[in-house]
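tool_call: predict_structure(chain=1)
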Amino acid sequence: MSIFDKIEQIRRQPEHIRLRWVWGLTAFGMIFILIIWMISFSAQFENTDDSEKENILNSQVIEDLTTQKESIQDATKQMKSLLEK
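tool_result:
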């Protein structure tokens, strides 16, 4: 039985039977949408935790690079002062 045959069969049913089909399929569709929404919502929270960890790591890397930059600038100044003597 194809879907078109099933639709025709439902069309021939009385109105109260057709309303049952409408409400049943609507409920099924909403449950399906809610399941997808809950899965994507939980995945979003997992990604948020990862991005927070990544931000913490990025800030640590920036601090390390800043410290290294200052150290290199200090070493460069010392080398210039030694070469000027």
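agent: The mean pLDDT is 86. Proceeding to next step.
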